[in-house]
Amino acid sequence: MTSRIGLRPLAERFEHLVAVIGGQRFLKMESLNNDIPFFICDYRATEAVEMARLQKQLINRLGQNGVRVLEINLYDLSIDLLKRREGSDKRSMWDQVVDEESSWSKEGLLELLQNVLDPREHLTPAIAKQIHETPHDVLFLTGIGEVFPYLRSHNILNNLQSTAKDKPTVMFFPGGYQHSLEQGTSLNLFDQLHDDKYYRAFNIFDIQV
What we know:
Strands 1, 2, 3, 4, 5, 6 and 7 form a seven-stranded mixed β-sheet that branches. Helix content is 41%, strand content 20%. It has eight helices and seven strands. The chain is globular. It starts with 9 loop residues before the first helix and ends in a 6-residue tail after the last strand. α1 runs parallel beside α3.
C-alpha cells in the first residue's frame, strides 16, 4: 500500500517534507522505538526531473530554517570512486571504463563496477568519511536510479546501518516503497523492478507532522 500523501501533487509533498524533516521530533529521532532512523521518500520515476529540483529547494528551505543537510549523490560518489581507483594499466578505473566500455560484455562491465563500488568495502567507507567530516542534521541519499544495477538500494541501506545511525537518513527513491501483508515491505525501483525486501525504513510520507 502506498502512502496517500505520496500520491498528492509535488507541492503538497514538498510542504510535508519541510514540516517533517524540519521538526524536532524527526531531528531528535524520537518515537522510533530503537529502530534505525532510515526514511524512504518514494516518487514516480516520471517525476525524476521535478524531484531533483524539489530536492535542491528542500535543502535550501531547510537551511533557511537552520537544518543542515548533507546530500550524497550516489552517482557522483560512484564516479569519484572510479576516478580515484587505479586500474591494472595505471590509469584510473574511470578512464578505463570510458575508453574500453564498448569492448566489454554487459556482464563483464557489471562485474567490474559491482566490485569497485562494493557497498561494504568501498561505498560505505566513502559515505562514512563524508558523514564524519561534514556537520549535518540529516543525510539525503540521492542518485539511486542512476546507479542501478551496479548498486542496489537494499544493499546500500543494509551496509549503512552501523554507519548512518546517529542522524536521520532520507533516501529519495524513484519507485514505490510498498507495504502489504501478503508480500511484506519492498522497494520497487521505477515501479517495475523488485529491488528486494527491506523492512527497517519508514516511508516518510507516513510520518505525522
